[in-house]
Design brief:
The chain is an alpha+beta fold. Helix content is 54%, strand content 16%. InterPro entries: SatD. It comes from Pedobacter mendelii. This is Transcriptional regulator. It holds the Pfam family SatD.
């Protein structure tokens, strides 16, 4: 089982392309050692990550793009098997790719920026409700909130006082930004998603 995230930058033609460097750097970070990511058609991308990291990865990618306000990102998460692995992600095939495409294509109609598709409709229904609720917070991230979420996800085991030093901001400002971003609720959702995913995969 793998997770394929398909995405594009919202309104990329109307904004400065400072988002492109942010996107490339973020894709390198989330794909880790496997380096399985690709940018195509100028503002579209695909990346392969571990299924359990789907929520955390999409939150990280969104934070990296939202720093370049007013840029935003739409993403479809697909989880499934991979039939043929090619050097280029866009030439590979399998359920993970199909599901990612279906999730991505559903975004405009559902008027949301993030959705998930797996082989389990009950799992999808449940997680997509959680995602819609999380988007109430994520879609309104300002630059500082996005910066703090990015930093917190990159350094998840450090204290807020250490985050403050890293960011060059006061601890109260860091705390307020993460609160405004609903970071702790997002991490609770990530934990629940991982639990539900495990239950689904090992039924």
């Amino acid at each position: 089982m793998v997770c394929i995230i398909t995405g594009d930058i919202v309104g990329s033609r109307k904004i400065k392309d400072s988002w492109l460097l942010s996107l490339k750097t973020a894709l390198k970070v989330v794909s880790g050692q496997n380096s399985k990511w690709e940018i195509y058609r100028g503002d579209s991308f695909q990346v392969e990550v571990e299924p359990e990291n789907a929520i955390r990865t999409t939150a990280y990618l969104k934070a990296c793009i939202r720093i370049n306000k007013p840029a935003d990102v739409r993403m479809g998460i697909g989880i499934g098997e991979v039939k043929s692995k090619r050097k280029k992600l866009s030439e590979s095939s399998g359920d993970a790719f199909v599901n990612s495409g279906v999730a991505f294509d559903s975004l405009k109609q559902a008027k949301v920026n993030l959705a998930i598709k797996t082989e389990s409709s009950s799992f999808d229904e449940e997680i997509n409700v959680l995602i819609k609720l999380s988007l109430i917070a994520m879609d309104s991230w300002g630059i500082v909130a996005a910066e703090m979420v990015k930093l917190a996800l990159e350094n998840e085991n450090i204290l807020q006082s250490e985050l403050a030093i890293l960011s060059g901001r006061t601890q109260s400002l860091v705390s307020e930004a993460l609160k405004r971003a609903h970071y702790s609720e997002l991490m609770e959702m990530d934990k629940l998603y991982r639990k539900k995913l495990n239950q689904m995969l090992f039924k």
